[in-house]
Amino acid sequence: MQTNTNRRHSSHHEVEKYKQNLTLYHVIYDLTNDLIYGCGFATAMSHDYFIGLVLWLMILSEGFRRHSRKQILNFN
User: Fold this and answer.
1) Radius of gyration over alpha carbons of the chain, in Å?
2) pTM of the prediction?
């Protein structure tokens, strides 16, 4: 009986650890992704406003896709 209790407890602990690792992964991913996009956008704006505007629209659409996908995954 104790082994089943320990097994359930360790399984629950593994799931919580997995969720923590997944959350940390998404935080780091979002931070680096936004940093790279910000640097690219600043570079494009300093070079040419039209290129900066096009890049801004691409970043906006990609960000919308990324965040809407997260909402769908959270909904499921």
Assistant:
1) 20
2) 0.57
